[in-house]
Design brief:
Layout (H helix, E strand, L loop, with lengths): L2 H7 L40 H13 L4 E5 L2 H9 L7 E5 L4 H10 L6 E5 L6 H4 L5 E7 L11 H11 L2 E5 L4 H4 L9 E5 L13 E5 L2 H14 L5 H11 L2 H20 L4 E5 L9 H7 L6 E6 L4 H8 L6 E2 L9 E3 L11 H6 L6 E5 L5 H13 L4
Parallel strand pairs: 2-3, 2-4, 4-5, 5-6, 10-11
Antiparallel strand pairs: 1-7, 6-7, 8-9, 9-12, 11-12
Helix pairs in contact: 1-2, 2-9, 10-14
The structure holds pyridoxal-5'-phosphate.
The site of pyridoxal-5'-phosphate has 16 residues, from helix 3 and helix 4.
Amino acid sequence: MKFATKAIHAGQEPDPTTGAIMTPIYQTSTYWQKSPGDNKGYEYSRGTNPTRKALEDCLAALENAKFGLAFSSGMGATDAVMKLLAPGDEVITGNDLYGGSYRIFTKIFTNYGIKFHFLDLSDPEIIRQYTNEKTKLIWIETPTNPTMQIVDIEAIGKIAKEKNLLFAVDNTFASPYLQNPIDLGADIVMHSVTKYIGGHSDVVMGALMLNDEELYKKLWFIYNACGATPGPMDSFLVLRGIKTLHLRMKAHCENGRQVAEFLKTHPKVEKIYWPGFTDHPNHNIAKKQMLDFGGMISIVLKGADLQETFRIASSFKVFSLAESLGGVESLINHPVSMTHGSIPKAEREKAGVVDNLLRLSVGVEDIEDLLEDLKQALSTPTL
Ligand SMILES: *Cc1c(COP(=O)(O)O)cnc(C)c1O
């Protein structure tokens, strides 16, 4: 089946009891058993719930994976992957990560004896220098957040295979419509479903998709034992959101392209990060592994200090100043004070996350209104 058909149908058979076309919201914590242990495959909703199961099968299909697991947040999903590790293990990861990922790695899992190497992965060969017998996992994000670096998934997949390392990709920024890491050699795909997959900024959720059955059993054990699983109402909302994922992504990419082109030559813009430009350092890799370039764009404002950056960030009328991304509505974010506040200044500046950087999540509103809003916000005079 092709993507659009999977988005609408995968995992969703008509309900066996009533024939309902839409998967019902099975708002129940527990299930009747005929005699102890004799049940219909459902015992307790922390571990299994029919609405969530339909969603998990759909999520797996979107990433061309056999198995899907939904979590109550993206961080819950990341946490479960890290719990595959044991004290002494080492992890190779990127140096431009989602702030919350950096935080859970450095503030939680280092306390449990796990060591992280934060590397510039634009040349994947660097991984070899940092790999030893303790290395267990490679965790990457591409495009990276917020500077839209592109990491070569296939090249890293080859190194992971050769060194026998588990390879996980946070695919949140691309969405399964634009990029499928499992097809390129990843073992696990992680999503913050909160973003493009949910798509309407009304649910917080995470997911893991994977092919290996043994690994699935281990992760399901962690999922059920630790309990960061989502409820049926949220599962229903995400199933509903997914039905338009392909339509929304096409619109995000088209609007993203026009916004990027408008900003590239704007006198207030010193630097722009968007992988669709042919002069983006990894444009060719983006072209190779992504279907299109998405609606995430970051800009560095020319000659703006923190105060001026705040002033501009607060003067939008259609874009809303808010954390998060991937919803139908356009958002603007100031990473230094919002999403990336937990990363030390020296660390984030190394990755290009400077005081005058703004990140745009271009929504699917009318492009003329978006361009008009950018024009007025960037031209407001300094007081
Ligand atoms: C938002 C986000 C996360 C965390 O997901 P939550 O659903 O907020 O817990 C992880 N990675 C990336 C790239 C994100 O944008």
